[in-house]
Protein 1
Amino acid sequence: MAFNPRDDSMNRARGQVLYRYRPGQTFDHDGGYTVQVLQFGRDDEFDGPTLDRSHLVQEATRFVRRWRATGRAYSAGADRAPEFPADEDRLADRHYEVVVPGKVFCRVWPRVVRCASGRCGHVWTASDPRPGTDDWPPRCPTCGNGVGNRQLQFVFAHRCGEISPMYPPSKCPRGHTRFRLDDRASRFRDFRWECTTCGFPLPVQWSCGSSTCGYPDKLMSPLLHSAGTTYVGQGLTLVNVTTTEEAARQSNPLYTAAVLGRWLGEITEDEFRRITDGNTVNVPDEVVDSIRVMEEAGLHDQARALRSRFLPVEADHLRDRVGKALSLDVESDDARGLAAELHTYRRVLNLDRLGIPRLQREARNPERRALYERYPSVLASAGLAQDTCLVSDLPITYLAIGYSRAGFSPEEADLVPYRGRAARGAPEKTLLYAHPTEAEALLFPVDQERISRWLVRNELVSRSTLKEVGGVARWLVHQVGASDSKALSHESRPEPGDPDLPVHELFGLLHSLSHQMLRALAVDSGYSETSLSEYLFPYDLAFAVYPNAGSDFSLGALRTVLEQNLDAVVTRAVDNDACLYDPNCMITNEGADHGCLQLPETACQSWNRNLSRWHLFGSPDGSRIGYWDPTL
């Protein structure tokens, strides 16, 4: 069969492409051969939202910076993203280009072929096939067999990102040059190359030859080309990504202070908009006099209302108040990152939402109204807030930043960028691939008072401390703000007494709640677990569940859940306290493995980190109280 790289059966949506067909990734083509993606072409007909390039580049550089920092913490002096622009490069953003992909270019790879004849089995490196002319796979050069020959499915991968076909040896000690692969063993280390002339066995191994590899151990790992660790796509799911209009607002020097001040309640919504829009107000003298008289008379609330409506906010005063309230330098990168997180959630709340009060008002019959009146008590019993709602068109952008091989995290492997030209004749840059879309999502804010009780009962923080800082949300910002979210990303549980332990446990609770709810939704929504994804808003103690880019299309499935059986979904999540592998899972894994809380990589935002049914149901020995403990 002649090689045809333009097989129409390979048409895929952009979301599927960014999950399964990225540059450098191999896959089994519908034409019956294995190929490797070379690069993406720009979608010149894309008519979606105009995303702010600077915002996407900023999020990517923050991701790379965290990858490097985690790698250095694991191995001092190591750079786990050596091919990305340096952190200290002030012009780093010029090295990036954002591309919305519309075309996929690939090649047959690896070109190492195995003869299907049992008497032969010869493995050789074939020539690159010419489209429409050369049959693929080709005939065996040793025995002439042309039936059933296949590309060798095994490759070598290294932690630096290098990949190589499993080439046969050049010759055996006796000078023979033809080999077959003995792969009957169940472990790669027991595979052997066998000389077809004299039978001499040779080990199956390969060393990394990349000039940029910084690892002392050069031995590459033998893997199936489609194995999970052969190619690990790394990127970010961004909710409500900044548009060009919002970017203009964020360019205001007071933007960070205004977002944080609005979140803290230091300024009103009108003041926030006046600050970020750059609008000014001409204040009549009589208004200024009225404010002064009210303050002298002790009418502070009335004076504050007039002040927020007419008088401009003093920039230095606002920065000082916010910095003092959060113990954070308002001009720092940490503060800007925090403001971006908080304002993202705030803008989600400004989208069109369908909540329980509206359901109750618009109920079509008494039975539906009675159902909706039960929802608040069911949510309260599960520790979820009453403003749980459906967001009809949640803007979601997946940003593909790079990939790793032979490892999922900075502790295990390097982050490798996509390098290329965004258009013909353009300079070579580090490419970021974006997939903007909209999806319905169920938004679950968590009951902050119940969170506080859970923290106190588990002796993670005292009630007086929470009261002193103004609640659990402000406490969390105090704990995490200065650490650039490092406390949220520990691979393992910090030791008792570690200052990051309370935040680690709180994030674990939110993450476990999200997974438990996603699993329950997969039963009642019509989506599978692989078709749903989570998005965590840790600073606002909320999470969202939405259909991911690789899901089957199902219009209104989550709205149907909200309208018909949200109570059943929440009850299922609370009641489902068992695992197929219990009691071993609950005791040795803290109740988190692929039989219960762990989800496929397409569903989980955080690589199944910090999950535990102990967070939800308590520990078997009673030393840790679960969030769903009836006594909480």
Protein 2
Amino acid sequence: MQINYLDAVSSVLNMMKQPDSACKNIDMHRTCYTTFFKYLMDNDIPFSMDAALDWLEIKKLEISYEACSQYRNALFRLEHYLLFGDIESPFCRSEDSFFCRSGMSESFFRLTYELEKYYASNQNPSYYHTYSVATKEFFKLATSLGITEPEAVTIDTLIEYWNTYCKSCGSPDRCQNAVCAMTALMKYLHLRGDVPECYQLVLFGGNAEILPGMRLPKTGVAFHPSVPLEHKAEEYLDALNDWKYMESSKAVYRNDFTWYFMFLELNRLEHSPETVTLWIDMLPDCPDQAKAGNSISARRSHTIRMFGKYLQGTMESNITAGQKRASDQLPSWSKTILDGFIESRKRDGMANNTLTMCRSAGCRFFKYLEDNGIDHPMSITPDVVKAFHNQDVHSTPESKNAYGSKLRQLLRYMAGQDLVLPTLVFAVSAGCAPHRSIVDVLSDDMVKKIYEYREKASTPIELRDTAMVMLGLRMGIRGADILKLQVNDFDWKNKTVSFIQQKTRKAITLPVPTDVGNSVYKYIMDGRPESAAAGNGYIFIRHQAPYIPLKVTTACRGALKRILAEYGFELSAGQGFHMTRKTFATRMLRAGNRLDDISNALGHARQETAEVYLERDEDKMRLCPLEFGGVLS
């Protein structure tokens, strides 16, 4: 030991003498090593760093603070040489920095220096100092649990760290710092090939509180079973491009994989159909899970089962066997009628939610008929319709009224097919009298200020807000359709725009007023970010990276609010961007346009939809008042 000590000391001093060495105070280092060696000889003690630090504690009482600091740094440099073969170590500020007193395994201690170099060269150098305390606490905990190598870290290690260190941090900021430190550490260990990628999210968002609930009573023995699947999962997500999956959908599926892989790691199970079934059974304990049959559970089940097909090479379609509809169990005569009714509603341009309600209402009605022995349309009487409607229970009167209206539509369809009498529809009573509120529109002052804002708009956001609001105010286009507009939808030569309405699925071509066209053109040329390749031709995109299309219709409402707020106006509760469409329709009516022209300009599926705007034309409404004779007599 003494010979090794002397050789090590000689090497350290020689390295300090090199011209490129930044180490100073060679004489103080030599004095420290010599004095310590004499202490070892006098007391017949073999050399160790623990012995060196014990000796330093004794010397504290005999030498000055400055000399003690110099001795400590000399011993620190000696230990660094014994571990790493060099003396490129920072100044030692406490005895906790020594490996022999760190409480870490040698692999973890070496990793601290490796991390410092990694952050200095590949990341922000300040990250290491920001995360170093929390990282070292993790290394100490892992060592105390018998884990001495980074590749032996498991999800259980991270959960234990959450329970023992993160929860005791004392402040949310310190806890968040520890979570960020572990996320960064797991990312680095994944790059090294030590841990699976999913480990990065074990502590994120409180996941460590959820994961224990996904532990099975009996676990397997597989070591890092998700690692072979990571690359395959990315290949699978790329394969979804063949079916035009959106990036946002793929991001959701990627999150599903993360939870599935964490489940495999937690229970040390290999991927198999049986494992997928076990995971799906645990889904209620995952975030946002209320019951196993909800849409999130169904989506996650679909994601992993499709992945299983991909691994087997049998993913020929992205369609899996869906749930059977209740209408599929109806007798053939009623199912044929219901399918025909739904098709007619589709041709009318009804949205999917409306079609679902129509199918549900029809299914409930025909199931009631079947239960009461009715097997032919001509056997449906007014009393039967009344009896069904009275027993059809709903949570609110509005809901019952909505289903009642769908039943009337079904009976009208059947009457049109000569299956029932035209008067049968009157057997469906109304839960409450129909009512209609007067539509809210922008005031003349508001409209005037919008035009004033358009004249002075100059910044990218101002130009975008102006273009959006002008499309709604001057053309009556819905917010959802505005966000879907692409550059190629505009025919600049003929001054028109063509698109398919999202709500009605109806194709429409509209003339573009000059002021609207100029606003859109100015935004495209002067406001839209140049690095917008990810926008894929959409006109209205984010102005911060990533430059992707705006997808939330509140963007249009926000544009209207910002313009009006410039002049002290505020939208009342419940009012939104749709007011621009209502204002457009009302102004067309006041200008003497026919109702069917207004309906066509708005892209309505039915002309009656535009009748709601009649009461806004006050001048013409005054021309047709009702007499009070019948009321006052």
Protein 3
Amino acid sequence: MTDYPASLIHKEMRLGELRKLADSAGFPALLINHDKESVEGVISEFAYWRSLAIYGEEAFVDLSINKNFKMVNELAEIQNSAFFSAEFFIVPDSSGGFFVYEKDQLKNVWLKEQLYSTERMNDLLKEEIYILQKKVVELEQVINTSYDEIFVTDGEGKVLLVSDACQRMTGVPKERFLGENIYNLAKAGLINNSVTIDVLKKKKMVSAKQSYPNGVQVVATGIPIFDHEGNIYRVITNSRDITELVQLKNELAEAKSILNERSAEDLERGKGPLFTHNDDMLALIDMAKKVAVTESTILIQGESGVGKGILAKIIHEESLRKDRSFVSVNCGAIPLSLIESELFGYESGAFTGAKTKGKAGLVELADGGTLFLDEVGELPLEIQVKLLHLVQEKTFRRVGSNQLRKVNIRIISATNKDLKSMMEKGLFREDLYYRLHVVPLNILPLRKRVEDIPFLLQLFLEEFNEKYDRNVIISDESLAALRSYSWPGNVRELENMVEQLVVTASTDIVFLDCLPDQVKSGNGKPLVVMKGIIPLNDAVESVEKQLLNTAIDKYKTSRKIAAALKVNQTTVIRKLKKYGLSTTGIHPFSDLK
């Protein structure tokens, strides 16, 4: 590469003059046309000596000119041009001179640049490969820490990835699956009812139960991933161990079968929505069993949806009147203007629109059986007077009649209101209250017997799965959310929600995101409320102490406390001593008394 001032070499210069210049400037040299102010050619060292030998020193330099050159603005243009078609490339510089590149020289420059670019590209690729390898390792660690089994195949069913949970669930090392085809694994009996095969056939998400040869049962959900042409590119399957859940389901089914065969135990443990393991509810049902065979008037109290009507029906079925009528009256659903005529009936012509032959009321229809007055707190005071007479004397008058009629009925009433408070406010008759309140039965709301939620949940699942021909189950996370929900609508709300989940579930397993918003949020009522920031250990001890205090009041014995808190009995004894709580009557052997 040589830099020449454009004014030093021109067409009129002699070869001898150029020889003197070449000693200091070197070759190649540019031939400048001063008239046109342009470069007309390039004189190489070889061309100069050849012309000098042939023509002598007096010959003009244009005899040695090489017009095979290319003018470019910068080196980048040379590297991007078809430079093999020219012998020289000329690049002007900022001072008015030129850089001259011979073709062979330019090749070396270009090759060096390409080599540098290649090396730089290789360095970048190595860096990208390192980053990708690091991400792959991190992804494998995340996948292998999953409790659920993760199984990935390509669009042909070849197994590409299996998580570490595979061996725990199947008893077979994951290497036995890797690289194999899912169809061959199914033929070998390693996988039954393959979800992956169903996804490949149906080209959509599929959920199903699977059983492994070692007896483990799982719920598997396969999801297809499609390429831009709509073909399945990958199938990702997540399998969750439900062996314990299935075992619990079988145990519940067995228990249900035994309960159905023994009617006495049906009442002891409750029927349907009154199925319970709660000590207070068991005591309530035991009391209901005792009074069922008597003629005592019963008042059932409890929030809406707890099963007051069901308990009334159970009492009737266990009474001496079980073969006679059970007439249920919802006092809050009958218009005020019709309550009297609906209850006591009316005579012919008693009022406009009355039937010509009159009509018997619900009280008469219950003659010989049981009259159940639901929501009795809704009755107006004027009807309460007549109801009091019915309760005391078992007599009544039809609307429009002066004739007393006598009936043989047993009265069970129910309310979700505080009748005693209403009585004090003059909204409910005191004498009627005490007549109805002979045997009070108070049903606990569902939030106070959360231990019953899993059993009621399974009961309703079986009912609605059979009704709608589904096979829906509830995930562990969903069950935990359902247990912590406050259930303002009680058992009725739980029953309706289970039916909704069975009908609307898109898969056979209900995950947390499938639950209604009010359940996922815990109904906005956290189980533990903190009023400030305290050390974590202090917070843990405070909660433990509160739980133990509550458990002592409710369960009395260390065995029951341990069962409720799901810890060992010795742990309960140790923590009671730690917090200095009263252990009167609570010791490791107190439950054997």
Protein 4
Amino acid sequence: MASTRNQQVLATHRTRFEQQIVGGAEFNKLLREIDAHAYRFEQDKLDRKRWWIYITLPPNVRETFDLRLEVLCLSASYERVEPRTLTVIAERLRSHNARVDPDFAMLLTSDRDAADLVKRRRGQLAILTINAQELVSGSGLGIRERIAEIMTTHDHYDLTLPITEPAAFYGRQAEVAELGFALDRGQAVGVFGLRKAGKTSLLNFVAAQRKEKGKPVVWLDISVLQTAAAFQLEILEKCHNLVREFDLKPPKLMCLTRDGNPNPEAKIGTYWVRDLNALLDLLPDRLEIFVDEIDQAWPSRSNLGAEEAAAVLRCLTQLRGVVQSREADGKHGIGIVCAGVDPAIFEKPLIEGRDNLLYKFARLSFLSPMKRDEMQEMVRSLGKRMALRYSDHQTIDFLFQEFGGHPLLTRKVCSVAARQRPQNAIPWHVPLSALEEAAQMRGPNTPKSEVKDVLASFTEWFGDEAAMLPLLWSGDPQEQEEAREWAQSEPGMAAHLMSYGITDEGWAPRIHAMRALVVE
């Protein structure tokens, strides 16, 4: 009886879906053609233009595309699909039960530009867009063919921008826990590592987690803000927004109007700390500030110019003063997480002969490349979205040995290797030979060129340490041994080689593909 009742409810919701949604009936027909089963139709309670459909694919499709769990589909009756819609899908995948596949979803929409929007988000979301108008006109491919097409045309390894979707963030669980613990205690932490090692992605992930917990979060990027005044105003405006988000009445400020806009008559540099304290007094918890590109505030390293960088440095020093004074008064303070390449801003006691007031303000955390199991999860999960299989442990061993778990370098060689996929090979079990060939390719936008860029970046920041590499990795055993004894006896001479993942604990190459560039 219960089963009959459930079937009646399903039939009712399916009928409503087909009546309300353009292409709804045709979409269900597509599912029936491959014996897929839509077992649930749920109209969104917050937005009646959205329907959520839960689909079980037939065994042959599940096996071919490794979609063994249920597939989530969103039907969105919007003229234009905004990026926020894709984020809603990602949030649903992440928060839903374990029966739904976390790596793949569908989107039924009449917006012809939605497919391009999804393609621009490759590497973060794997979503099959189905155009409702095409279904109504009777054109288009079947579901199986559509899945095959998107998996062979969207390169999810080819991602160079920081990750913003938590579903696309892999590993780093120890670092995530460390930052969360520090923020809970109101400690300042500076995260430093190689170029494209995942620093911004880590900050994005932790910031999203903290927001979900209801924490007041502000995100700043010094390289975007460019000036000290912009830095000050950005903090005030975002804190003003937070106060309103918590349904509180903003205080009267000198630097902002009642609506939260900049006051053109105010002297920002004079009153911004006063205004910040007034806003902090209203927030229900400690403010958490995430600052990216923190090294842009170090005058000798900054692209802002020495004068403007020094002004931003003074802003950060004032922030430290706010933290200390509020802690002394027993008030909610500020937790700060920064990211950059060079930790000099917290590591050097002097700046141009004067005391550096940010010296040891933040605890340093160095982001070395990923661990082997974390790298493996990333490679296999992204590969699944492209109908690629990395089932042979030798392929994983090769990737980790050659690129040491560096996320960008690993994805790059996987991206290049995927171009060797034979036509109509779905799934394709990536052979070791494809990775070896990709790793040896020369020219721009190849794994070798990316390794060269990473090494060049490290050399630019830490030239003295980079100069030790030819000796540490020398083909002459005696020369190599002497260099390693020197590095061990003078830790300051090689302080970042190991922590940044250039070498392992024995001073041997962590990224083996880098050795050829050093000793050739």
